[in-house]
Amino acid sequence: MRQHVQVLIIGAGAAGSAAAYALARRGLNVRLLEQFQIGHTRGSSFGPSRIFRLAYEEPDYAGLARAALESWRSLEREAEQQLYWRTGGLDLGPAGTPSLEAVHTSLTAIDAAPERLSRRELARRYPQWRVPADWEAVYSPEAGIVSPDVTLRVLTDLARHHGAQVLEGVAALEIEPGRQPAVLTGAGTLTCDHLIVAAGAWMPRLVPQLRTSLSVTLAASSFYRPDDLAAFQPERFPVFITHDEFQAYGFPVFGLPGVKLGVDVVRPITSGDDRSFEVPAQVGEASDTFMRRFLPGALTVMERSTCLITRAPGGDFILAAHPDCPQITLASPCSGHGFKFTPLLGELLAAHALGEGHPWQLPRFGLPAQAVDTAQGGPAAAGA
Ligand SMILES: Cc1cc2nc3c(=O)[nH]c(=O)nc-3n(C[C@H](O)[C@H](O)[C@H](O)COP(=O)(O)OP(=O)(O)OC[C@H]3O[C@@H](n4cnc5c(N)ncnc54)[C@H](O)[C@@H]3O)c2cc1C
């Protein structure tokens, strides 16, 4: 059986769901394929919380996040539901750390009203924290929480409402580039005017040209039950990121009665199909040590979970045409920080698929050089 649609999208994670919503809302005939179920826990877009922040070292990402906030607000209006919870954010580290300074500079550049907090001021406002004498913090008021669990449900419901067909349990087995790209599935072949591949950790399998540029690694989060639950509620405990020997990031109590912590200490290489669900011992140990040292009011481990991060070179995103086929858009907006942009990414992908420009289609989202070399049969292809 062969069917044709205007836009076919592979992958109902953050990127694919947002693209399906944006395109269906514009009246396109859209089909979204998901190999598992919406909200499954094998990829990157699940769980109660992701950090929303403007606090980037790079001013263009800070500006992108501000534009994304507008997109979250319009999605909230259409969904008639809250999707962004403002908590404020803390970037913490030894005073003078270059990345901390850069965050302050870029927040100032976009008029985001950052506040420098001395250790003493930090202790007064947020007594949950114990930091060394030489530390300070940068507070940013617009940081907060967005939720993969809630957002994916809203985006796919709205996409369906606007006429998109969302098929769960249907895997794309093979892609055939062409003027009308074709996708082979277990239930037959689909052709389309435009294909968006937003397959997260499975991108390298579906698009071999990306194998040398994308790396898939296992990450983990830990949840800690606080002694005083009230002290770690979103109104009293901002989301945070540390700038120290390794990056740690965390959340107030939200969705689960525990403080959530992630630490970037090891990056075990894996793939969408061969990954483990076991939390690496080093991650568990570093997380517990971090809590004992900095947040001693929340030490009881409630649960830990694993998640996949697909990184593009430089920690950037790929939102670009397939090297061999302009009718295919490749979307890999992860690198461990993509969720906060979700509704804006949908708009960017819709514009790309329709051949339109978009003010936030940044040059840094282009295809990495290795992928172009591979497509042209250069050195990277020889190793593939
Ligand atoms: C531990 C962790 C913490 C993070 N923290 C933050 C944060 O605080 N703030 C932030 O902004 N971002 C954060 N991120 C990043 C963010 O979660 C990702 O940017 C985002 O979820 C990526 O979504 P995606 O759609 O690209 O990929 P995925 O969510 O993985 O979606 C890809 C989908 O494609 C499907 N698929 C793959 N192959 C096929 C196929 N052949 N056929 C059909 N379907 C297929 C998969 O099943 C999957 O559902 C974090 C990520 C992790 C893992």
Automatic annotation (TrEMBL):
<keyword id="KW-0560">Oxidoreductase</keyword>
<dbReference type="Pfam" id="PF01266">
    <property type="entry name" value="DAO"/>
</dbReference>
<protein>
    <submittedName>
        <fullName>N-methyl-L-tryptophan oxidase</fullName>
        <ecNumber>1.5.3.2</ecNumber>
        <ecNumber>1.5.3.1</ecNumber>
    </submittedName>
</protein>
<dbReference type="InterPro" id="IPR036188">
    <property type="entry name" value="FAD/NAD-bd_sf"/>
</dbReference>
<keyword id="KW-0274">FAD</keyword>
<dbReference type="GO" id="GO:0050660">
    <property type="term" value="F:flavin adenine dinucleotide binding"/>
</dbReference>
<dbReference type="InterPro" id="IPR006076">
    <property type="entry name" value="FAD-dep_OxRdtase"/>
</dbReference>
<dbReference type="GO" id="GO:0050131">
    <property type="term" value="F:N-methyl-L-amino-acid oxidase activity"/>
</dbReference>
<keyword id="KW-0285">Flavoprotein</keyword>
<dbReference type="InterPro" id="IPR045170">
    <property type="entry name" value="MTOX"/>
</dbReference>
<feature type="domain" description="FAD dependent oxidoreductase">
    <location>
        <begin position="7"/>
        <end position="351"/>
    </location>
</feature>
<dbReference type="GO" id="GO:0008115">
    <property type="term" value="F:sarcosine oxidase activity"/>
</dbReference>
